[in-house]
Specification:
Elements lengths: L5 E7 L7 H11 L6 E7 L1 H4 L6 H17 L7 E5 L5 H10 L4 H5 L2 H9 L6 H16 L4 E3 L5 H18 L7 E3 L34 H9 L16 H14 L3 H7 L5 H28 L1 H30 L7
Parallel strand pairs: 1-2, 2-3, 4-5
Helix pairs in contact: 3-12, 4-7, 4-13, 7-8, 9-12, 10-11, 10-12
The protein binds tryptophanyl-5'AMP (TYM).
The site of tryptophanyl-5'AMP has 24 residues, from β1, α1 and α7.
Length: about 325
């Protein structure tokens, strides 16, 4: 496509505040990839409206998310950071791919089941076909690799099935993408219920670390994290709370589980929780400083939004035209 580099695509929803789970499971793994891949990172605002949103809030959250990508360390000159809603190809391809996706496949999606249970008063068709829009995001850029957390693997598997199905009818139209999971942190759990994933939409603010939490809040939340009465810092199924903290500490410091266990051998949960809290706060402080700086620079952010939106649109349109031709839509007269 653009040059010899492989293509990488990922995105996040602009709903709620980003959590440490989003950071460790996805954003952290996005950094430093632009030398090896042509990278597209979208703020997926079309996905956000599958749940009712306040318009002004959504706009603000989307912009904050875009700035957070940059604050976390993605250079917007080297990574295409853009709003999904600025590239109409996403929705256009989604319509076409809806016609190549089965109801049965969508019925099996666990995220749909979870979300429809949570929003029983608004089980709209968009919530149901959400994974098809996600497939369109990915396939529109002829993506090779998609770095995500574990909870998105089922959607990625569906994306691959749709691409293979389409290609088997029309020839090699889409690249079939591969998922990419980080070594640690692919599934960060709630601090209050370690059997549930840490989620932006959790009602209990103590369950999640938000990337915008200040140092004291981060440390306080870790101090309150649910553990057990084993009094042993060991990574195992029987100790989900402690294991989650080991996972977080390992993902933040780059240490293996064994190294973490060794470091805290004989120490109490109090010391361990404090160390995890401090490590996470140290990680977040520079990100927050950078975010605040970026918030002051409206012109710079606007320029990024415009230029990257145009770049994404260019590549998206290329794939879209090819697909439209393959399915039999008439060519445009110039
Ligand atoms: P979203 O916005 O829910 O989450 C963004 C990314 O964060 C990861 N993640 C986690 N990783 C580890 N532990 C957790 N507790 C945790 N919670 C979330 C997610 O796996 C994801 O990588 N449908 C997607 C957004 C999307 C997308 C795409 C992603 C739309 N189109 C195309 C990749 C490619 C979503 O809702 O992610």
């Amino acid at each position: 496509m653009m040059n010899d580099k492989k293509i990488l695509f990922s995105g996040m929803q602009a709903t709620g505040s980003l959590t440490l789970g989003n950071y460790l499971g996805a954003l952290k793994n996005w950094l430093n990839l632009c030398d090896d891949y042509e990278c597209f990172y979208s703020v997926v605002d079309l996905h956000s409206i599958t749940v009712r949103q306040d318009p002004a809030e959504l706009r603000k959250k989307a912009r904050n998310l875009l700035m957070l990508y940059i604050a976390a360390g993605l250079d917007p000159e080297k990574n295409c950071i853009y709003y999904q809603s600025h590239v109409s190809g996403h929705a256009e391809l989604a319509w076409i791919l809806n016609c190549f996706t089965y109801m049965g496949e969508l019925n099996r999606m666990t995220q749909f089941k979870d979300k429809s249970a949570k929003h029983a008063d608004n089980i709209n068709a968009g919530l149901f076909t959400y994974p098809v829009l996600m497939a369109s995001d990915i396939l529109l850029y002829q993506t090779d690799v998609v770095p995500v957390g574990k909870d998105q693997l089922q959607h990625l598997e569906l994306t691959r099935d749709i691409a293979i199905r389409f290609n088997s009818i029309y020839g090699d139209v889409f690249t079939v993408p591969e998922p990419y999971l980080g070594k640690a942190g692919a599934k960060i759990m709630s601090l209050q219920d370690p059997t549930k994933k840490m989620s932006k939409s959790d009602e209990n603010p103590n369950a999640s670390i938000y990337l915008t939490d200040d140092r004291d809040t981060v440390i306080r939340k870790f101090k309150r994290a649910v553990t057990d009465s084993e009094a042993r810092i060991h990574y195992c199924e029987e100790q989900p709370g402690v294991s989650n903290l080991i996972e977080i500490y390992g993902a933040v410091t780059g240490k293996t589980f064994e190294e973490v266990e060794k470091e805290f051998e004989g120490k109490g949960y109090g010391d361990f929780k404090l160390a995890v809290g401090e490590a996470v706060a140290d990680l977040l402080t520079p990100l927050q400083t950078r975010f605040n700086e970026l918030s002051q620079d409206k012109a710079y952010i606007d320029k990024i939004i415009k230029e990257n939106g145009e770049k994404a649109d260019y590549y998206a349109t290329k794939t879209l035209r090819k697909v439209q031709k393959k399915v039999g839509f008439p060519e445009r007269i110039r």
